[in-house]
Design brief:
Helix content is 79%, strand content 0%. The protein is mainly α. The longest helix has 44 residues.
């Protein structure tokens, strides 16, 4: 078989189409076809985002109430120092409205955008890669959601409570602008959600043989220190209690990733043994 025919077969195998040619076989997708599909993904993603932003705008008061809940959880013990959020300029309210619609639309449309992207790249993956991709995507989504919810219910109220107590100790009046509060809340949720992805990265590195669980166990003290540093950077505070609130869940996830990594090492060793057996036969 010639080199050109090998390339053509690889192209058909890696980028299959639903449509078939006249002979009944699958037909390879060209570069322009991929660009057309990418354009379709972008259009669908933008459409879903706009619809989600419009939905948030329609229920804007309810959405703002949900975002204000961490603040209310925190100032319930703050002695009434904070009565609510304020705007500091005549046009600031429009900035807040755009911010709420954009962030809310992005959050609601994000799962659909991921689905569109996954469908776009799926034909280029082998069956083994697809088997690995599905649990990885599910795990990443669960970890990100868990980190965001942890930040929403625990971390952000804790940071606000600490700030309120310092202001009360110094006798300072609190006037917090709405746009800065929403920025802090959303970016802390995104940051903690992204930081909680590291167990999945560790498991992939273990599965591919880049690192092993013995190295992870030996590096535990350095990992714990890095978790406290990450807590300081993500929360932008020197409060040891807040840093501990971030470090402890990440430490727990690190220990879980070692257990899962050991299981993946066993699976990898079994696959290599089966491949060696087949090669020997």
């Amino acid at each position: 078989m010639t080199e050109d025919s090998d390339k053509e077969e690889r192209s058909v195998r890696e980028f299959p189409e639903d449509e078939s040619d006249e002979s009944g076989g699958q037909k390879a997708m060209g570069f322009l076809d991929h660009l057309e599909e990418m354009r379709g993904v972008l259009i669908k993603s933008l459409t879903v985002f706009v619809l989600a932003a419009v939905l948030v705008a329609f229920f804007l008061r309810d959405f703002a109430t949900v975002l204000n809940r961490p603040l209310r959880l925190a100032i319930g013990e703050g002695g009434g120092l904070v009565d609510g959020l304020v705007t500091t300029s005549p046009m600031a309210v429009f900035s807040v409205l755009v911010q709420l619609c954009f962030l809310g639309g992005l959050g609601l449309s994000f799962p659909f955008i991921l689905y569109f992207v996954a469908r776009f790249v799926a034909p280029a993956l082998t069956s083994r890669e697809m088997k690995l991709l599905r649990p990885v995507c599910l795990g990443c989504f669960i970890l990100f959601l868990g980190g965001a919810l942890f930040s929403y219910f625990v971390l952000v109220p804790g940071v606000i409570r600490f700030s309120v107590s310092l202001n009360e100790m110094l006798g300072l009046q609190l006037l917090w602008s709405a746009d800065r509060y929403y920025n802090m809340l959303v970016w802390m949720m995104i940051g903690i959600g992204a930081a909680f992805q590291f167990p999945m990265v560790i498991c992939l590195l273990v599965y591919t043989g880049v690192i092993n669980t013995r190295q992870l166990r030996n590096g535990r003290p350095y990992a714990i220190i890095s978790f406290f540093v990450a807590g300081m950077m993500l929360t932008a505070t020197w409060d040891p209690l807040t840093q501990t609130l971030v470090a402890l869940p990440m430490w727990g996830l690190y220990e879980i990733s070692i257990l899962v990594g050991r299981r993946m090492e066993w699976v990898r060793e079994r696959e290599l043994a089966e491949q060696g057996l087949e090669g020997g036969e």
